[in-house]
UniProtKB/TrEMBL annotation, chains A, B:
Organism: Allopontixanthobacter confluentis
Keyword annotations from UniProtKB, A to Z: DNA-binding, Transcription, Transcription regulation
Protein's GO biological process: regulation of DNA-templated transcription
UniProt-recorded name of the protein: Helix-turn-helix domain-containing protein
The UniProt record lists the keyword Zinc-finger: no
Keyword Glycoprotein included in the entry's annotation: no
Source species, domain of life: Bacteria
Length: 273, 273
DNA sequence: AGGGTGACCCAACATAAGTTATGGCAAACT
DNA sequence: AGTTTGCCATAACTTATGTTGGGTCACCCT
């Protein structure tokens, strides 16, 4: 896992990562909660983008950061190393801020790892700081993005304790599927991913052999199919049932809503989906 | 789990929960990062305290909150219900803000449950909002407190995947021990807790029978002992080794430090412990 | 005093998951 | 063309953990 950052796209115009459907540079998870002006502002803060390849650490535990990173295309992992083994403790998909933490913490407690091909954008903390002070609504959204990560962590903890192997895998696949679809990626048939069975096994806390067994169960049960870089959803309802998946924890539209604490208006509150 | 909140201490002066050692009302986890003025300000925001008893839900998933809660004495659990079973996904000790999330989110994605006897203080969101705008340093600390919860979630995920039953229990006990000592509770011999083996089993994702087995292993191995409401540390080093415990993720003094992103000064950065 | 209850302990057994070992297959390399 | 490598599949075996079904004990209630 070498750490070699190649500069890319600097000085170029337009920069990479523009979304094919929306024409927007950011296909942000938070877009529906932002005004167009805020979207423009946020995009303007990105001073550099990079296309990264392969499996390597982008930001290492303990690094001091004066910038934050947004994942524009591809996947990234949060990992914690402890002695020999490396545990995946989080997964990021396009549109996620991957290290907004680094803005409120001096240092990160975990690594951020690139897998497959990814495109990332960087925002300087000094610029973020200014926006945070001037735009309380955006500030709250940034905070929200870190709370969303925590909510996902909690769900992983719950599902890991509640379900057996095949159920855990079903839940994970469903989560990724949902999260991708929330930012306009994948479709009802499935999605592409650079995740290998080794990654999936690590995330689900089981051996690769058992992951293979569990994927076979899902395949033979007619729920989902895994093939090198491609997840095919055979029966979405079946998969959701196996993983007892309830998307409320992802705070999508219609579910638990983003708060408005910095500008409270109780009349805005929505019922639970 | 009935939800019956009895009003307590309203209108009284002084309010309950004053720390016996420091004389401070808050034995906050974040105290060492606050000025005396900030501590005073924070204390002044608490408009009500309550002493709560038994096992019941204090704040329920989906509740709309216009206040946030600080745990002054006792323990609280974060739980997620899914059908019949209830999973504990977090544990709070005195000095923790338990629902700073509710400030940035409209609604919480999980329940907050009181166990044993607990004393809590409430802060109005309108007051918090004012402080957030005027005092960027305190704002950062509040954000930090939610990031700390997330860091603990990640460690739980990692340890749950990395360790077998006895190791997971050892890690959990060590974590609680450390967190209590960080706010001046417990001592080198052990600590008191209302947690039962049922709670511990739930947190560690195993059956109560297996928790009983694991605790027996720890006892016979001379690491730690569990007795109704009391954890006795027989050999701290042994316990730490069994759980591969590394306190860095708790962001204590000397470890990964709280950032200063709202007022960056790179010269302040400290080496990792 | 008697009965109930909740927390805890233990043994025997069933099942889930880890480990070891082997092999297939496709892509990359020489 | 042959070799290597990474990813995936499977079987046989071992180990960890869950389940069932018993207990003890302290506490509370009547």
């Amino acid at each position: 896992m070498g750490v070699t950052l190649q500069k890319a796209n600097t000085g170029q115009n337009p920069i990479a990562g523009q979304h094919p459907k929306t024409g927007r540079f950011l296909m942000s998870r938070l877009r529906h909660a932002m005004t167009v002006g805020e979207q423009d502002l946020l995009e303007s803060l990105i001073y550099k983008t990079q296309t990264l390849q392969g499996e390597h650490i982008l930001i290492e535990r303990g690094d001091f950061c004066d910038f934050s990173t947004m994942l524009i295309e591809g996947y990234m992992l949060r990992t914690i190393r402890d002695g020999d083994d490396e545990q995946i403790v989080g997964l990021q998909v396009p549109g996620d801020f991957v290290d907004m933490h680094a803005f409120a913490l001096k240092r990160l407690d975990h690594d951020l790892v690139v897998i497959g091909e990814a495109n990332v954008g960087y925002v300087r903390h000094e610029d973020l700081k200014r926006v945070l002070q001037d735009q309380p609504h955006l500030a709250r959204l940034f905070w929200f993005s870190t709370l969303l990560d925590a909510s996902i962590h909690r769900e992983w903890i719950m599902k890991s304790n509640q379900l057996r192997a095949a159920g855990r895998v079903a839940h994970l696949l469903t989560e990724i599927w949902y999260r991708l679809r929330m930012v306009g990626l994948g479709n009802s048939k499935g999605f592409d991913t650079p995740l290998t069975q080794i990654h999936l096994a690590n995330i689900c806390g089981m051996s690769t052999i058992h992951m293979s067994r569990s994927l076979r169960d899902l395949r033979e049960g007619g729920a989902a199919e895994f093939n090198r870089g491609r997840i095919t959803i055979l029966d979405g309802d079946k998969l959701i049932a196996l993983g007892k998946f309830d998307p409320a924890y992802l705070y999508g539209e219609g579910g638990l809503e983003v708060g408005d604490a910095l500008n409270i208006d109780a009349s805005e509150s929505l019922p639970l989906s």
